[in-house]
From TrEMBL:
This is Nitrilotriacetate monooxygenase component B. Its EC number is 1.14.13.-. Residues 20-173 form the Flavin reductase like domain. It is an enzyme of class 1 (oxidoreductase). Keywords: Flavoprotein, FMN, Monooxygenase, Oxidoreductase. Its cofactor is FMN. Belongs to the flavoredoxin family. It comes from hydrothermal vent metagenome. SMART domains: Flavin_Reduct. GO terms for molecular function: FMN binding; monooxygenase activity. The keyword Flavoprotein applies.
Amino acid sequence: MATFNLPELDSVDRYKLLTGLIVPRPIAWIGTVGRDGVHNLAPYSFFNCVSATPPTVVVGTGHRSGAPKDTLSNLRDTGVFTVSIVTEDVAKAMNITSENVAPHVDEFVKAGVTAVMGTTVSAPYVGEAKATLECEVNHILPLGEPATSWLVIADVRTLHVADDLLDGTRVDAKRLEAVGRFAGGQYCTTADGLFTLERPD
């Protein structure tokens, strides 16, 4: 078995190992608004729900060419964002929004998806998404010395879920067809190969 001392590896090799092993990762398709009113939409697979009470999600974001990404800048300015759940039917549009583009480019338009403003936060979400979270930032924590990434901790204020996915408050994972990310360009969906294990009492 190979053993790696991560502090001794370069950032690319660390990224390959971690994203190849911690899989599949859910994708936060984050909608924000810039100071100039331009909508921003970008996918982040360093994302998860860490608490139901209080309802809390976390997102990890890095930098681009030494500067914060547009999403992080917008979060700092507005304190709010949305997460559209990426499903198989919008996966190609999500991939389009992963391209590095200038801040004045509206990725909703570029990807051909509908921007719908949140009901409790002033940020847009993907109208074609089967489910969406509206979130308010609690903390943005720098990671590293000097910071090379940031951890965003946020409260989930509102959920929107397609009616046909729900049985009360239980979500049908197969119908959701949520997309998870592996390393590189590899993805999976919750409709692929689901199996059930009963938890012991």
